[in-house]
Fold this sequence. Notes:
The chain is mainly beta. It has strands spanning 69-74, 81-82, 88-89, 95-98, 107-112, 130-133, 140-146, 150-158, 169-180, 187-200, 203-222, 227-242, 249-258, 262-269, 280-287.
Amino acid sequence: MRRSASLLASRALLLVGGLGVLAAGCEANRTHLADTNPYEAGTTAPLSCVPNLDGQIDSSELQPALGIAAKYLVNAAGTSRTVDVAGMTNTSGQLVWDWATSYADDQVATIEASSLSGKWYASSFPDGQFATSFDAGDTLEAVYSQDASGFYLHGLASTEESPASGKTLWTYDKPVALYTFPLKPGASWTQTGVIRNGLVHGSPYAATDVYQGTDDATGQLVLPDFTFTQAHRLRFVVITTFSAGGNPIVSRQVSFLFECAGEVGRATSMPGETNANFTTAAEQRRLGT
Length: 289
């Protein structure tokens, strides 16, 4: 995402499990083997979140995993990608989105949720809980919080305090709920965020963002490295009106979320797109390995 009018920053949520194996040692002299302790299998740490595929995503199934990096396949900046966000119905009556094509020019973006502690902009977000990269190049970071009712965007800041492109720092007058829980087909929400006295690349910035979100379907999302059997399709429209005047900017995004894994796929439209089932994406992002 390349501007404040863009949509949601990535969630870096992963399932993490550990495996410890305790193996007994053997000496060269085989006469001592009878005294060697028997092999004991290790234990697998329980997963903090296990999908129950109940048709909805609760806040507890989208908790941020701080410090755990997720890798996404992303088309290069300045390019576009042909996408299918409408999907097709298979012989079993299930909606399927086939995003499994491998592209030679795919790049890997590593996204990680992190604490605000020590970040230059932390004092500007007293109620923020964590931050993630806002763009694939990690030049901007978005600040979020989450509770049982929603997942909230507080604002945006440049990763560095004084980058060559100029400082970015803006906050909403109140946090904007990007998701409201539980997420299930038929859910919809509208949120408005007002920005005053902000900076974007060193220039003064003020605007109003209206977010319209819907969870309109579940189905199978097929990626090069994963298949998610009950992915939720979330559609977003963001309308940005600039306080300085000019025409509003309309952006569309389709995100696919899966219980416990967070956002596993995303397509962001070209600016000004009017078709909800757009076929050309300014950015396609797919969870990879």
